[in-house]
Design a protein that fits this description.
By secondary structure, the protein is α/β, with parallel strands linked by helices. It is built from 15 helices and 19 strands. It is 40% helix and 21% strand. A hairpin with a 5-residue loop joins strand 11 and strand 12.
Length: 447
């Protein structure tokens, strides 16, 4: 992880942590780097979410790219996975996404993709950071300055790609979509409508300030009520850039990323198309998922938290489905990144193929109670490595034994320590999480 770029890009409060000057310089570097390396005019595609500051960063990036002689292709408001798809299939040198995902509107981020639509390699990221810190001098273009190209056709092509993936008509299926006032608002309904669903949409009026505000996958309770009140068959909730998806079954129960991995992993095994007989999870996945997978005879790999690490495992091993409890699900046959709308289509496929409601498909995956609390700290490494904090964590682990587990880790995108406990009761989870947080507080680590 670099100085500016974490596991999910350069993220921070707009014009405070991440400024328009940063964006200009990132554009300057990428335009020069790909032009010089490939000995041609660089061709770079950009997409953004609905935050007000995304427009500022879009223009700043374009300014930097053009000043270095690159052409900037603008997809406008679109999802992270759509940029990844178009970068790959339309032979762009790299892709840029302007989004802070599930964060509030006043944050923003810049995520970089290589020409294969994958997260940018660490070596290139470190070169970007070196330039941001003034460690490199690069020339400006003179007679060969770049230009911007309206590329809304890329978004439309991605919509067509998703529609073409469905094996079934959604006719007469009542589907609820919470698009979080984010990037999915201009895409998701079009896909479901085209496939024949009776589509009910909420939080689809972005104004630049309401992205993720009391809506979407981070506030799924509203979709739960919406599904039940409207008698829907299924509901899907996305985050701001729609690279994650959580579901709500017809009874209003939450279907997490772990459930999704179970449901689709079981479906793949049943059809004999689960490579290595294995799915990929992170260390945050629930005990209940592993117990359910064990009953089906499905193996699993565990990675560090972050879809980046899940994808790296999948590329290395040939595993075809993996993801996070939070809803980042990767289907490597179809995408190089988590894709919320694609995940929705895959859940619809299982329901229609099995002719069963989601509640029945997910029922074998019974979760342990889990409590996760985020603690804002001054320094993540100092809090994480404090001997007294580590001793408190070990004490909880010893007391839980084989009846649960504790996980304490640093957030890759925010100044937070995440404390998670799984145990046999909610009360035990709360107690053990609070015991560790009290030590973090007592040692003066809180921001």
């Amino acid at each position: 992880m670099g100085k500016y770029f974490g596991t999910d890009g350069f993220r921070g409060e707009a014009n405070k942590d991440l400024t328009y000057e940063h964006a200009v310089k990132i554009g300057r570097f990428l335009g020069w780097y790909y032009g010089a390396r490939l000995e041609k005019k660089a061709k770079i595609v950009i997409g953004k979410d609905t935050r007000r500051s995304s427009y500022m960063f879009e223009y700043a990036l374009c300014t930097g790219l053009m000043a270095s002689g690159a052409d900037a292709y603008i997809m406008h408001v679109t999802t992270t996975p759509s940029v990844a798809y178009i970068t790959r299939v339309d032979d762009f040198d790299c892709g840029i996404i302007i989004s802070a995902s599930h964060n509030p509107y006043y944050d923003n981020g810049i995520k970089l993709l290589n020409g294969d639509g994958e997260k940018m390699d660490e070596e290139t990221i470190l070169k970007v950071e070196e330039y941001l810190d003034g460690g490199l001098e690069i020339p400006v273009a003179t007679r060969e300055v770049g230009r911007t190209v309206d590329y809304v056709e890329g978004r439309n092509r991605y919509i067509g790609y998703l529609i073409g993936l469905s094996k079934y008509s959604f006719k007469n299926v009542k589907v609820g979509l919470d698009v979080a006032n984010g990037a999915a608002w201009s895409i998701a309904k079009s896909v479901f409508d085209a496939l024949g669903a009776k589509t009910y949409v909420m939080n689809n009026n972005p104004d630049g300030y309401n992205i993720n505000t009391d809506c979407g996958s981070t506030h799924i309770e509203h979709l739960q009520k919406f599904v039940v009140d409207n008698g829907l068959d299924i509901g899907f909730a996305y985050d701001g850039d729609a690279d994650r998806c959580l579901c709500v079954d017809e009874k209003g129960n939450i279907i997490t990323g772990d459930h999704i991995i179970y449901v689709y992993g079981a479906y793949m095994k049943e059809r004999g198309v689960l490579p290595n007989n294995k799915v990929v999870t992170t260390v945050m996945s629930n005990f209940g998922l592993y117990k359910a997978l064990d009953k089906l005879g499905i193996d699993y790999d565990k990675t560090k938290v972050g879809d980046k690490y899940v994808y790296e495992n999948m590329v290395k091993t040939g595993n075809r489905i993996g993801g996070e409890q939070s809803g980042h699900i990767i289907f490597t046959k179809y995408a190089t990144t988590g894709d919320g709308i694609l995940t929705s289509l895959k859940m619809m496929e299982v329901m229609l193929a099995k002719e069963k409601p989601m509640s029945e498909l997910a029922a074998p995956c019974v979760f342990y109670p889990q409590v996760l609390k985020n603690v804002r700290v001054k320094s993540k490494p100092e809090a994480q490595n404090d001997p007294d904090v580590q001793a408190a964590v070990q004490k909880v682990a010893d007391e839980l034994g084989n009846t649960g587990r504790i996980l304490v880790r640093e957030s890759g995108t925010e100044p937070l320590i995440r404390v998670m406990v799984e145990a046999e009761s909610d009360e035990a989870c709360e107690k053990y999480v609070d015991d560790v947080i009290e030590v973090i507080k007592a040692k003066g680590h809180l921001a």
